[in-house]
Each structure stands twice: as structure tokens, then as C-alpha cells.
Amino acid sequence: MKKSILITGGAGFIGSHVVRLFVTKYPEYRIINLDSLTYAGNLLNLTDIEEAENYHFSKVDIQNESALEKVFNQFQITDVIHLAAESHVDRSITDPLAFVNTNVIGTVNLLNVAKNFWPDKEKHLFYHISTDEVYGSLHDGGFFLESTPYDPQSPYSASKASSDHFVRAYANTYKLRTVISNCSNNYGPNQFPEKLIPLCIHNIKNNRPLPIYGKGENVRDWLFVIDHARAIDDIFHTGKDNETYNIGGFNEWKNIDIVRLLCEIMDKKLGRSPGTSAELITFVKDRAGHDLRYAIDASKIKTELGWEPSLTFEIGIEKTVDWYLENEAWLTGVTSGDYQKYYDKHYG
Ligand code: NAD
Ligand code: DAU
Fold this sequence. Notes:
Layout: E1 3-8, H1 13-25, E2 29-35, E3 55-59, H2 65-75, E4 79-82, H3 89-94, H4 96-117, E5 125-131, H5 155-174, E6 178-183, E7 185-187, H6 196-205, E8 210-213, E9 219-224, H7 225-238, E10 244-247, E11 252-254, H8 255-270, E12 281-284, H9 299-305, H10 313-326, H11 328-335, H12 338-347
Parallel strand pairs: 1-2, 1-4, 2-3, 4-5, 5-6, 6-10, 7-9, 8-12
Antiparallel strand pairs: 9-11
Helix pairs in contact: 1-7, 2-4, 4-5, 6-8
The structure holds nicotinamide-adenine-dinucleotide and 2'deoxy-thymidine-5'-diphospho-alpha-D-glucose (DAU).
């Protein structure tokens, strides 16, 4: 094996697309998907590649140091791509400690194990997948650059900012080779239906209210998940040591506009008369401390690594809606207890 790459959080939304890309594109690499399978982790995301010879799954919590050490030893890990995290802002508001435990303590644990396992640190890479939310909220125009000072506003973004700082501290103190990327909002197949886009698709289909926080005027920059996975591939292979890369879709939308667009698309797909689904739009109490606008300037990754999104939003959102309509069993599985049965049968 040329490399033995530990991908944490590989059973989650973005992680599963990264695992699939690496397993299929690089048969010469061994890919170890390490995931504790929280409510957000789902091996059903990877049924198409789970038999591949270069793929392994390990059910481990990143807070468990000795279990991590065993995996590093067993698979002689050469590199880490770290995605495992608590990822949902609303949950961080109700349970911030869960975010400290996984995103901060879990990340430091993983850094420690990697640092101790790699005496020849220059041969190995620790790649941390982070978020644009570490930069805070844009109120007066402009874009997030790699040099924008950190200003996290939610318990989730504070935990991710903290883990970014630890990664940089390990690079500086222990000479660990690292790289960090900070990406904007992802959408696409396999996203847990607590996030805005899959939640709305699910609710439109089931004639349930579409909860819009505040006035729906908050802006997010949306990127198709497979384009994020492609960027991670490029950064892993050609990014410069200890650098940061911003990744974004050049694609800003107000929440209310995106929900209206989803209603229009779904009316057509479900054969409803125009305007039917939009009647489900319901303005609700705003998220506490709701960041107004995120927008990434992704020029650095474009000019230095040649990456840019491969799909327009029109195509990506259509593909996403089709995927959710065609994968009702997946949606039912992740929102009910069925998934646990799948896990017990295959890995229990
Ligand atoms: P997700 O919630 O879909 O998946 C997270 C995965 O991590 C799950 O499989 C879960 O089981 C696993 N996990 C959680 N706690 C763990 C622990 N203690 N030990 C081991 N595994 C654990 O998240 P996602 O949306 O795929 O995000 C993945 C990464 O990308 C996160 O680090 C997130 O901060 C970052 N990110 C996400 C977005 C986005 O729009 N979703 C954008 C930028 C960055
Ligand atoms: O910017 C990157 C971040 O994007 C990632 O780091 C996070 O892991 C990811 O969850 C996402 O965070 P957001 O908070 O932006 O995503 P979410 O889908 O929760 O919300 C998108 C916008 O929609 C946000 O302004 C809040 C709003 N919203 C969300 C939900 C779930 C609603 O109006 N109603 C809802 O029901």
C-alpha cells in the first residue's frame, strides 16, 4: 500500500463522499474509515464500496486514545483526514459540551496519537477539515479570506475554531505536517435531514411546515458536496504544508430564496400546482445568535491548486432533490431505528 489513510467521520455526510472518492480513485491506498456512528453517522452511505479490498471500517470514538492507538498500529496509518465532528449549530446551542468533547478534546486526542505514532513527521500529513463559521458573521459586505481573523459566534464554531488553533499549535510546537481547509455550506446526497436543504425536501414531500428562522434573510454560500470532496483530494495531494485553504461555491443565497426555489422544484417533481409547497413556509423564532452572512473568497485554492466547483447550483440542487426522492428508504432509515439493525447485522 502506498498510503494508509485514516479518514475520521467517514460515515457522515461529507466524510462518506470523501471515503468513496479515495477508495475508488486510489486503489493503491488503504482507506480506514473511523467513525463512532453517532446519530449522524450512517454506514448505509457506503454500501456501494464497503466490499472494496482497500476499504476498512473501525467503530471508534476519537475521544478514546487507546482505541485510536490500536487503529494506528493495526493499519500503520500514514496520513489523517479528520472530519469527525458534531456538526449541527442548533444542537451546539442546546448541548455545547458535546461539541467541546468531540470537536476539541477528540481532535487534540487524535493530534496526540498521530504525533506520537509518527517519529518521522515530515513523511506524514494531518489534514483538518474545518468550516467558514470560524470567521464569524459578515455584516458589511466582503468575503472571508484565509487571513480573516477568527471570530466564532456559536458554540459549534467556537469548538471548530479551537480545534483549528490546536492543529496549528501542533504544527508549530511538534513540527507535525498539517493543512486546514475551511469550507462553506455543503449540500447534496446523504445529508442528515436536520440541515436546511434536506429538512425542507423531506418536509415538502410530507406536507409538513418549512421552518424559516427569523425573516429568512440570512445568507449562506452553498457548495455541492462532491465538489468539496474534490477540493479535499486536491489539497491532500498538492496543498502546501501548514497552509489554510478556503473552499466555497461562489454561490450566495438568502435562506428564504433557497426554500422558495426548493418549493418550485418540488411542485414540478411531485406534480403539484405552482405555489402549493410554498404554502408550507412558516416563519419561526430566530436561531440564538444567528450569523447573518457567510461568503467565501475561494481565489487561493483556484489560483494555487486549480480547483473550482464542477457543477452549477441549478444542476446540483436538481440532482439533490432527485436523490432524496429516489432514496426514501435511506431517509426512513436515518430517521428511524432501522439503521441500527443494519449496523448490528453487518458489524455488530
Ligand atoms: P456529519 O454530522 O454529517 O458527520 C459527522 C460524522 O462524525 C458522523 O459520521 C459521526 O458519526 C462522526 N462522529 C461524531 N462524533 C464522533 C466521535 N466522537 N468519534 C468518531 N466519530 C464521530 O458532518 P458533516 O456535515 O459531514 O461534516 C463533516 C466535517 O466537515 C465536520 O468536521 C464539519 O465541521 C465540517 N464542515 C461541514 C460543513 C457542512 O456544510 N456540512 C461545511 C464545512 C465544514
Ligand atoms: O458554513 C458551514 C457550516 O454550514 C458547517 O460548518 C455546519 O456544519 C453546517 O451545519 C452548516 O451550518 P448552518 O447553520 O449554516 O447550516 P443549517 O443547514 O443548519 O442552516 C442553514 C441556514 O438555514 C441557517 O441560516 C439557519 C437556517 N435554518 C436552518 C434550519 C435547520 C432555518 O431557517 N430553518 C431550519 O429549520
